[in-house]
């Protein structure tokens, strides 16, 4: 073997350390999205505030992350990935500390918005900041591990959050980030190589960022505030109409601006367009499904946080087992039916909850077995969406394609939370299960629409089959 070729295939110790540093902080950024759903009842009881107000703790974070992903990525490409990544980690750590020390809902929401800024920077730069340490021939290994870590964080968040809350308080889900961020900021300059894109302009449609963020926020606000203000309130109607007007404006700007917030050219790839349609419906259901189940267990069935954590844990564990197998199958048979069947299973689990669960707590005889159906569905889908979105996109456009996909997904997460909070509130009082049933039907319908969208629009076969054709 030619010794000169060895460095092109061997992954160095330095590369593994760099990967570990970035995956550590990425995991906890993703965990924060779903772990907060378990903490929701505890925060509500401590602050004595309405669910609609507190929903901004979750939705505000998702909106900020989605709005700033593309901006963060462009900035990192221009001025240096490490120069952007490490301040982002520091900001996420400081905001986590502020959230853990919050003495009121306003402080907590503000801290979560700041966390969203740091989270957007981390998610936009984590791949790029560690890939230079890997030889080109082995970078798919790093990308695969990073994707699996993010997916594991998404499904493990509720169980991990329940454990921390049971051992300490809800504040622990934020405080645990602080020492980890300090560690990454300390090790980052030693383990991460600086890199940038010499062709990057650093430009983006900042007006589009403002329009898109305002549009999503106003639409969400109209849904959430309809609970307390009423559907016929002029403020609710005005917020909805203005938000609904801003979204088409954003699409128009993205079609005509040289550096758009959303790159519409990517939607010419059928697999990318189909994935984004499917993941929009999937996103409306995913985080909101965790939230409604957490509220049902803790508020309606009055289960302690330890029991809720144990009840929520089997589904993510099953998803973690199924997910790696799904990745191998996607390479062989393609993504269409894996995503469709997985989404159908998720929807079926929530239909079963709506039909079977009642006022009598049946945590381990009914709730957990039904949750296993959802666990298999999540295992088939949660990591598969990302690879499906990029399956036909040229490698040179992976960055902007991934950021566009994640922007749409984060917006869907935020919308879903707003809708289920409003649906749960349709019950007569906190002991009325009808609101939860409406929320379960909503989640199920979104999963079914996701399955239908992918089944009808995603191209057949694997990406390699399509490339050969």
* Cα-to-Cα separation, first versus last residue: 35 Å
The percent of residues in helical segments reads over 70%
What's the number of extended β-strand segments?
0
Number of helices: 19
Cα-atom Rg, whole angstroms? 21 Å
CATH topology of the largest domain: Growth Hormone, Chain: A
Gist of the model:
The chain has 469 residues and is an all-alpha fold. It has helices spanning 13-47, 51-54, 56-79, 81-100, 105-130, 139-167, 172-175, 177-191, 206-229, 234-256, 270-300, 305-312, 314-333, 336-356, 363-381, 384-390, 398-424, 434-457, 463-468.
Question: What does the model show?
Answer:
The chain has 19 helices and no strands. By secondary structure, it is mainly alpha-helical. The protein folds into three domains: 9-202, MFS general substrate transporter like domains (Growth Hormone, Chain: A), CATH 1.20.1250; 205-260; 266-469, MFS general substrate transporter like domains (Growth Hormone, Chain: A), CATH 1.20.1250.20. The longest helix is centred in the first third of the chain and has 35 residues, at 13-47.
Q: Which terms summarize this structure?
A:
single chain, 469 residues, mainly alpha, Growth Hormone, Chain: A, 78% helix, 0% strand, globular, disordered N terminus
Topology overview:
Layout: H1 13-47, H2 51-54, H3 56-79, H4 81-100, H5 105-130, H6 139-167, H7 172-175, H8 177-191, H9 206-229, H10 234-256, H11 270-300, H12 305-312, H13 314-333, H14 336-356, H15 363-381, H16 384-390, H17 398-424, H18 434-457, H19 463-468
């Amino acid at each position: 073997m030619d010794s000169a070729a060895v460095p092109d295939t061997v992954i160095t110790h330095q590369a593994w350390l760099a990967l570990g540093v970035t995956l550590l902080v990425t995991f906890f950024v993703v965990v924060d999205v779903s772990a907060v759903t378990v903490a929701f009842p505890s925060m509500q009881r401590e602050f004595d505030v309405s669910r609609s107000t507190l929903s901004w703790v979750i939705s505000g974070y998702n909106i900020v992350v989605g709005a700033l992903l593309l901006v963060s990525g462009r900035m990192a490409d221009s001025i240096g990935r490490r120069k952007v990544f490490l301040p982002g980690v520091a900001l996420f750590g400081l905001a986590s500390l502020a959230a853990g020390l919050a003495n009121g809902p306003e402080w907590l929401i503000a801290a979560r918005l700041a966390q969203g800024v740091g989270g957007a920077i981390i998610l936009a730069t984590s791949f790029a900041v560690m890939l230079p340490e890997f030889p080109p021939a082995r970078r798919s290994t790093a990308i695969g591990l990073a994707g699996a870590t993010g997916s594991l964080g998404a499904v493990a968040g509720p169980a991990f959050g329940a454990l921390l809350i049971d051992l300490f308080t809800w504040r622990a889900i934020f405080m645990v980030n602080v020492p980890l961020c300090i560690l990454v900021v300390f090790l980052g300059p030693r383990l991460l190589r600086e890199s940038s894109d010499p062709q990057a302009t650093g430009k983006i449609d900042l007006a589009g960022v403002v329009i898109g963020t305002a549009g999503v926020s106003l639409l969400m606000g109209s849904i959430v505030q309809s609970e307390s203000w009423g559907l016929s309130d002029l403020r609710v109607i005005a917020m909805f109409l203005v938000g609904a007007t801003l979204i088409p404006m954003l699409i128009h700007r993205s079609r005509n601006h040289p550096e758009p917030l959303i790159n519409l050219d990517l939607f010419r790839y059928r697999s990318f367009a189909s994935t984004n349609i499917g993941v929009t419906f999937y996103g409306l259901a995913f985080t909101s499904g965790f939230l409604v189940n957490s509220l049902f267990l803790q508020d309606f069935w009055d289960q302690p946080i330890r029991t809720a954590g144990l009840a929520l844990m089997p589904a993510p564990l099953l998803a973690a087992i199924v997910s790696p197998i799904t990745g191998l199958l996607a390479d062989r048979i393609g993504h269409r039916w894996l995503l469709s069947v997985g989404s159908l299973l998720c929807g079926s689990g929530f239909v079963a909850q709506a039909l079977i669960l009642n006022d009598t707590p049946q945590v381990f005889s009914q709730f957990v077995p039904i949750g296993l159906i959802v666990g298999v569905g999540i295992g088939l889908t949660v990591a598969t969406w990302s690879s499906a979105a990029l399956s036909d996109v040229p490698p040179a456009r992976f960055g902007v394609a991934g950021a566009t996909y994640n922007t749409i997904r984060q917006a869907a997460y935020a919308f879903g939370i707003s809708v289920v909070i409003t649906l749960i509130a349709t019950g007569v009082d906190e002991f009325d299960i009808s609101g939860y049933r409406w929320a379960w039907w909503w989640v199920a319908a979104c999963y079914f629409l996701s399955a239908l969208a992918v089944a009808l629009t995603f191209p057949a076969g694997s990406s390699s089959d399509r490339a050969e054709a």
